[in-house]
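Extended Data, panel c. Modelled sequence:
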Amino acid sequence: MAEGILYIVGRAIIPKRVRPDLREYLLKTGLPEVPYPLFGVLFFLVTAMSYFLYTFFFLPALRQYGTVQLGFLGFVTFAIIMFLFIFTVSVILYFYWNIKIYHRTKELELLLPDYLTLVSTNLKGGMSFENALWTAIKPEFGILANEIGLVSKRVMTGNDVADALTVFSMKYESPILRRNIQLLISEVESGGKIVETIDRIIYDMKKTQILKKEMAASTITYMIFIGMLVIFICPVLFALSLQLFTIISGFIGNIAGTVGPSTSGLGVTGPAIDVADFRLFSYLAISIISVFSSLIIAIIEKGEMKSGLKYIPMFWITSLFIYFIASGILNFMFGSIKFGG
């Protein structure tokens, strides 16, 4: 009963014209159906969180207005809060699904040479191209086996093999997959030497994979340097800067308090920036550096930024942890240096 309600609510909040595109997008993530119950759960969760935030934080400030103004401002405020929550959840889901699609695409590219090797063996054994494709499906091929299984179902329902393979190749944003599948299709349609073409594709793909591994190994020094810079050196330098700023701020404040108001014309005043502001700036700077350094490492290692998203939490948490540890150690070392009244 509850699951049925969640399904109805989740389906209702998704616009009808968006549903086909959403289903096609989610197929790339490995979900055969749109998870409407999940959307229903998220809707009720977002509504509850919006109500809690509005009731305990915004409503007390709005009670000063009249009934009409309170009703209008309350409705607008609640709508804005709920919209922000929905937008945040949507962004999180979008990034999660995008990362999942990226990993599935890379796994397909990795499995394709081994699968084509079996297809080539079947063709050399005298099978037709279609039978060679279906017979080569093995459980160990995982995602690729499922996708080729979908291709076979399309063929059994009356679609042409070339059309079914084209749909499969266009499903993922993979130039390697699209180029090789289209090469196979053109070779089959022209009646050429399909076995030689497949063997050449297998050789080129494996050679490309080896070259990528060699490139990643040759750039490991740069990745280690950037990692050490982000995780250790940058937080320690910010902690040292914070400690130095605290000492200088106390020193200036002590001088400003000593000279007194009678000598204010000398221009001796306290620091314009508070220590808390500098600490907040350190948090933001370390976070931004962690994010972009993760993306830079991903570009060096894989050639794509998407693969660096998994590094962001590790770099961010570790660098902030080192910052807190370094700040505590430096505060203990220089804690005896005190200024001020």
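The first helix runs from residue 2 to 12. This feature is highlighted in the accompanying rendering.
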